[in-house]
Each structure stands twice: as structure tokens, then as C-alpha cells.
Amino acid sequence: MTQDNDLRIGRYKLVKEIGRGAMSVVYQAEDPEIGRMLAIKLLKHELVEKEEYRELFLREAKAAGRLGHPGIVTIYDVGIWQERPFIAMELLEGQNLDEYLQQNGTFSLEQASDLAKQLALALDYAHQNGVIHRDLKPDNILVLDGGRRFKITDFGIAHVEHLFLEDEGGKSKDKIMGTPAYMSPEQITGHGVDFKTDLYSLGVILYQVTKGELPFQAPNYAAMMQAVLHLNPQPINIVSEQGFMWQSIIFRLLQKNPDHRYPTSDELLEEIETLTKELTQNKEGLAGIRFVSMRARWAISLSAVVLLVMILGMVWVYNKQNKLMNQLVFDYGNSMVQIISQETREPLLLEERITLQELTRDIAGNSQIRHLSIRDKDGIVQSSSQPEQISKPFSLPPASQIQQKTSDAQIYSNLTDYDQEVVLFDSQIKYQDKVIGNAFIAISRSNLKSATQSSLLAMIIWMFLIMLAVFSGVYWLANRFIQRVNETRHVIRELRNHGEADILKVDTHDEVGRLQQEVNDLSQKLAGLTQTQYISTSPDPSLLETITDLDKTLIISQDEADSEIGKDSG
Ligand SMILES: Nc1ncnc2c1ncn2[C@@H]1O[C@H](COP(=O)(O)OP(=O)(O)O)[C@@H](O)[C@H]1O
Ligand SMILES: [Mg+2]
Fold first, then answer.
1. Closest approach atom of ligand 1 to CA 21
2. How many angstroms separate the CA atoms of 555 and 134, rounded?
3. Last residue of a domain, one of 427, 451, 475
4. Residue 401: in which H helix or E strand, if any?
5. Which of 61, 90, 119 delimits the end of a domain?
6. Domain that residue 447 falls in
7. pLDDT tens across 210-251, in order?
8. Is 135 a catalytic residue?
9. What's the gap in Å between 136 CA and the centre of ligand 2?
10. Is residue 84 domain-shared with residue 99, that is, in the same domain?
11. Which residues cross the membrane (predicted)?
12. Is the pLDDT of residue 182 over 90?
């Protein structure tokens, strides 16, 4: 490329065409003075003749030129080249949102809410400065940083409020301007618009980036107008709490009556912020916790508490019972050994071994007495239920453990030396306060032991039955509760997905009943909110002509509209 052949618009050297809209062609160009690249937007050749379009071009420069915001393309300069107006502005590398969507498909909720936030901030700034865009659509949004940043461009049909203008003196005749698929009901019918028309278009864009289709599709302008005025968009159907929040934001933006849209961008931004927070929290929210039904949770934890209390009680009872039983054995053994001492002291004193042995045999006939032996003061066994011990020195069975001790008697327990558990009693035999020997008996504990054991078993069975009753009772109660909670949840899900649901039958007045009542109230309220309310405005009959390019910016002046009517009637 030589210097001479360079095509220049004003002082700007054209590099290449980078975009094209309804009104203009956009070029990449270079400002040789400062050596920077920029974008030059030039009015299309075929529109040069029309005064109206030249005016619009200047309007864009006027409207956007006053704005400086990271979410809005910056205008540097405006000029006329060969009678064609042009605008010089910052060059943005990237695609417009329409091309981006075609390449990358729909947005995730995170990306979409990010887009919503950036656009809402930029629009808020423009509105604060008295500029209403009026032609917000994917074509006019540039995507930067691979989808992380967005900038609004093309303020071609923007409206600058009188308050902010020195000299527009009543000039703004009602024209129909905008892109039908993105136009608000008030805009599409040619009624006066305010900043809320941009909120509506934002709603259409957000709907489109998440659902992949427009809220209303129509083959021609008349049908589009009918749809925008009278139909409800289909739900977006992102099945999650956040999806529902997102849909309610979009549906509020898409409200047909501008008064029902967000009154301020702040309120919109607040809701987007809440959603963003939910989205980040949700990542580490319920998903990380394993689901355990409350009937299991309740039944198991209550049974566990009951079990613990019962075990503690049982241990206490068992100990108490054991103690009593032991006392009983001790008392019984003591009196037994006393009686034996009484009975045997005379034969022992008189060394009547045969009488002693007979007595021993008689007493040992008692099945509770496992061992009985009488010894003299030297410790030599005089009679015994185990005859091989007679005449031998007495020895305590080795596994005996002392339990109680008094001056003239000892009690031992012994678990192993006999064929069953026994308690051993060893008591002195006295005659006129002189010790003449000892009586020794082993009394079986097995009967008492089996009595304690069977009462323990009864307690365990009883405990098991109580546990079973508690478990099934709680399970049954929780089940009834869960059933009602699930019904309510189902209705809430229906509400989220379809904006409407059956009314719950509330037949129990308790906390859940009240919750259900609240849900019923909510669903009645939502029936009004999630469905964009239809408004009646009489469409201009001249516009019911077929216009097929519903995604191209459209400008119908009142003159044209009038002549269209003329054509119709003539
Ligand atoms: N500053 C810019 N940098 C890069 N590309 C741009 C810029 N402005 C516009 N474009 C591209 O040119 C296309 C048409 O520009 P736009 O301003 O929307 O024109 P029109 O008013 O004719 O619709 C845009 O969709 C975009 O792809
Ligand atoms: Mg455009």
C-alpha cells in the first residue's frame, strides 16, 4: 500500500471495513497525527440524501459524545466527508454480541448476570446523563476480552432529553424508531418513551442470551406488535433457585407496562447482585452435603437418645439389683454358717467325728450348699462334704477373693474353683467365748445370678420394643410431615418453572399449614408478576404492513406513516 493510494476520510486513513449496520458502515482507520487506530462510522452512501439520517448521525455524536463510561464506546470526533457525516470513535477488538452468540451459543447464568450488570451500569450512567439509547440489541453491544467485558455502541437513534439540550425546541416528533424484536410496547406503538424502554430491550437481550431465542417471534411487524402487546413470553426454564431468580428479573424488565418495570437501575443492580451472590454460594452450598431425609434423621436421633437413656437406666437398675442380691446371699450364708456353728460346736468339742460327719452330710444335702467343712482350732478338717479332705489341714480354695471381714467371720467370692459361682463363708465356732474351730460353707450364687440375668433379659427386650415404637412412631410422623413439605415443594417448583401452580389444599392448621397458605398467596401474587401483563394500546394501522427485517433498526417518520395510510385507503 502506498501513501498516495490511501483512502482517507478527513485526516483518517482507512484500513479495512469491520462492520455494517442499518445506517452505516464501520471501518478501522488510523489517525496519522497521533498514530492511533480508531473506528470510523460512515453514513451509508444511499442514505446521504435523506436529511433525516444525517440528523440522526449528528444526534448520535451529540448523545454519545457527552458520555464517558467503561461500558460505552467513546466518541472522539465527528465530521463530514464528501457530504457524508462520520463519527470517529475508539476501536474495539472483538465481535458484536450477535456474532458472539452465533459462535458461542447461550450464556451460563454467571456470564449472563455479569452481562446484565455491566449493561445496567452503562445504561444507568447514560440515563443519568439524559440519554436514552432506544436501540439496544446484540448488534449494538461489543464483546471484549472473550466475553468478559461488554460495551454499548450505536447511539444512532438515541434520544437526549430536553433538559440536557440547549436547542432541540419541540423538534422531536413521535417517530417509530428501533428494532421491532427489541422494542418495548410503548416504543412499538409510537407512544412516548423514557429510560424504561431501554430496560425492556435489556430484558429481551437477557432472555435471548439465556434461552437462545427471542421472547417473541413473528413473521412480520404486525404480528410482532400483537405479540409484544398481548402475549406472555415462555418461561426460561432454568431449573434452579437461581434460574427462577434470573427469570423473575427478566420478566420484570419485560413488563408491558413501564410502571411495572424496575423504577430505578439501583433496584435492578441490587437484584443482580443478590443473584450473583447466590450463584457463588450455591457452588459450595447444598451440593456438598449428602442428602439425608429428615424421617431417617429424626427417627435415628430420637431412637439414639431413647437408647442412651434406657441403657443408663438399665445399668443403674442392674447394679442396684446385683447389690441387693449379694446382700441377700450374704445374709443367707451368714445365718446358715451361724446355725452350722451352733449345731456343730458340741460334737466338735467332744470330738464326736461320726456325729459331726452325719450332721455335715445332712446339711450339705441342701442344694445351695456346694461345700461344707468343719475344722478344729488347729485347722485340721474334722468333717467335710468332700470326705477326702478329712484329717487334713484346711486350705482355702485358691481363687477365693475376700468380700467382707469381721472379727469372727470372712466372706469370699469364688468364681472358678467350683462347678458354679459360689460365695464362701468361714466363721469361728465358739464355746463359751473360746474359739474351738471353724465352719466353712460354699453357697451357690447361680440361682440368684440367673434371676438377675433373666430380669436383665426382660429389660433388654423391653428396651428393644420401646425403641421400635419410638422409631416407627417418629418415622410415621416425619413421613406425614415430609409428604406435606414435598407437596409444597412441588408447587414452588411449578411456580418457578411456569410462573403458576395449583393451589395447595390446606387442611391442617399448624406451621406447615401456614407455610402452605403463604405459598398459595405467593402463587396468586406471582400469577400477576411472572406473566408480563398485557396492556391495551391501539396500534397504528399504518404499521400493520409487512416489514420482514425485524432485527434491523427501523425508522418510520410520521410522513411515511401518513402516506402508508393513504395507500391503504386509496
Ligand atoms: N467502535 C467500534 N469498534 C469495532 N467495531 C465496531 C465499532 N462500532 C461498531 N462496530 C461494528 O460495526 C457494526 C455496526 O455498527 P453500528 O454502530 O451498530 O452501526 P449502525 O448504526 O449502522 O447499526 C456493529 O455491530 C459492530 O460489529
Ligand atoms: Mg447498529
1. 22
2. 12
3. 451
4. strand 401-405
5. 90
6. 310-451
7. 999 999 999 888 899 899 999 999 888 777 778 888 999 999
8. yes
9. 9
10. no
11. 298-318, 456-478
12. yes
Region class of 368: left (phi > 0), else alpha (psi between -120 and 50), else beta: alpha
What size, in residues, is the chain?
Answer: 570
Identify whether residues 146 and 284 lie together within a single domain.
Answer: yes
Grid coordinates standing for 349?
468339742
Q: Which residue in 57, 74, 58, 61 sits closest to 23, CA to CA? A: 57
The average pLDDT across 495-515 equals 83
Residue 158 and residue 134 in contact, taking contact as beta carbons nearer than 8 Å: yes
Q: What's the 9 CA to ligand 1 centre distance in angstroms?
A: 17
Expressed in angstroms and rounded, the spacing between residue 19 Cα and the centre of ligand 1 is 5
Tell me how far CA of residue 124 lies from CA of 67, 135, 147, 163, in angstroms. Answer: 11, 15, 21, 17
Cα angle 119, 122, 127; round to 5: 120
Same domain, 12 and 55: yes
Q: Ligand 1: does its nearest atom lie under 6 Å from the Cβ of 201?
A: no
Residue 139 alpha carbon, nearest atom of ligand 1: 25
pLDDT in tens, 69-86: 999 999 999 998 988 899
Nearest-ligand number for the alpha carbon of 157: 1
Residues 243, 50: Cα–Cα separation, whole Å: 46
99 shares its domain with 85: no
Please count the structural domains in the chain: 3
- For 412-433, the pLDDT digits (tens) are 999 999 988 899 999 999 988 8
The one-character DSSP state at 483 is H
Opening angle at CA 83, ends 77 and 88, nearest 5 = 20
Give the alpha-carbon dihedral of 482, 486, 492, 494, to 10 degrees. 180
DSSP-assigned beta bridge partners for residue 20: 25
Do 84 and 155 lie in one domain? The reply is no
Torsions phi, psi for 43 (to 5 deg) = -65, 140
Specify whether the CB–CB gap between 40 and 14 falls below 8 A: yes
Q: Which of 124, 135, 139, 426 is catalytic?
A: 135
Three-state SS at 215:
coil
Buried b (16+ CB within 10 A) or exposed e, 460-487: eeebeeebeebbeebbeebeebeebeeb
